[in-house]
Amino acid sequence: MLQKKFGFTWYVLPAVTWAIFIFIASSIPAYEMPDMTIFAWDKAIHLGVYFVLAACVFTAFSHPDAPALFQGHRITATIVFVAVYGGLDEFHQHFVPGRAVEFFDWVADVSGALVFVFVFLVWRRLRPE
Which residues contact 107 (CB under 8 A, 6 or more apart)? Predict the structure, then answer.
């Protein structure tokens, strides 16, 4: 089995890497952001970025060597982790010049996790056993 071949750390690495990417991106002062129309889709970008984070976290929590609490409640743990990380990231932006804490950005972050969970549950139900 592939999960047994690679350790838990290997499965956590994508989540940590993606979380670092989010932190770096949200550390860019607003006046240094490129002027692109894609940023008009701010909430959709948040949803997509945190969808990927949820997928990475869920994969890590699904590993046999993950803490039992996370394995047994991997959907809830994923949503909680993404919600907390999204909230901390919004708080972090309070200290970045030109950036602001926005409640609806956090809602979009959590929505990314919820959409991931929905997609996972539909995929699991529809896949042949």
Answer: none
Q: How many domains does the chain have?
A: 1
Domain encompassing residue 19 = 6-25+40-126
Torsion of CA 40, 46, 119, 116, to 10 degrees: 180
pTM given for the model: 0.87
Integer Cα distance of 8 and 67 in angstroms: 10
Q: Which residue has the tokens 């929590």?
A: 61
* Residue at 1 is within a domain: no
User: CA 103 to CA 4: how far, in whole Å?
Assistant: 40
CB 59 within 8 A of CB 82: no
28-56 pLDDT, tens digit per residue, is 998 766 665 555 688 999 999 999 999 99
Q: Is residue 121 predicted with pLDDT exceeding 70?
A: yes
